[in-house]
Design brief:
Layout (H helix, E strand, L loop, with lengths): L1 E7 L3 H6 L1 H13 L3 E6 L5 E6 L4 H10 L1 H4 L3 E7 L19
Antiparallel strand pairs: 1-3, 1-4, 2-3
Length: 99
């Protein structure tokens, strides 16, 4: 599983101008079964996405295709972790530690 932390690198007005395209990109990743949850940070200086089911190379490609990345209005920090414990509703995402 991955935590994708977005930090805006441009004024929020530039971010807002790309918001519709960013939402379409998010929707495509949810439809593909990659994204589990997403939302804005508070204060509004970026966002957070939880993703699963792909490897690091693929998640980096996905992040690079975000219109926010393409247009240079955010930077991504990608953290991989093992979801060894989850709420019951997220049980499908549980994974064992590697051997």
């Amino acid at each position: 599983m991955f935590v994708l932390e977005l930090t805006y690198t441009a004024p929020v007005e530039r971010v807002d101008a790309l918001l519709d395209a960013h939402i379409e990109w998010l929707d495509a990743q949810y439809a593909a079964g990659v994204f589990v949850a997403s939302g804005r940070k508070n204060p509004r200086d970026g966002g957070v996405i939880l993703a699963a089911g792909v490897d690091r190379t693929e998640i980096e490609k996905i992040a690079a295709a975000d219109p926010f990345s393409v247009e240079g209005v955010c930077a991504y920090r990608i953290t991989e972790f093992y979801a060894t414990k989850t709420a019951d509703g997220l049980a499908a995402y549980r994974e064992p530690l590697p051997s």
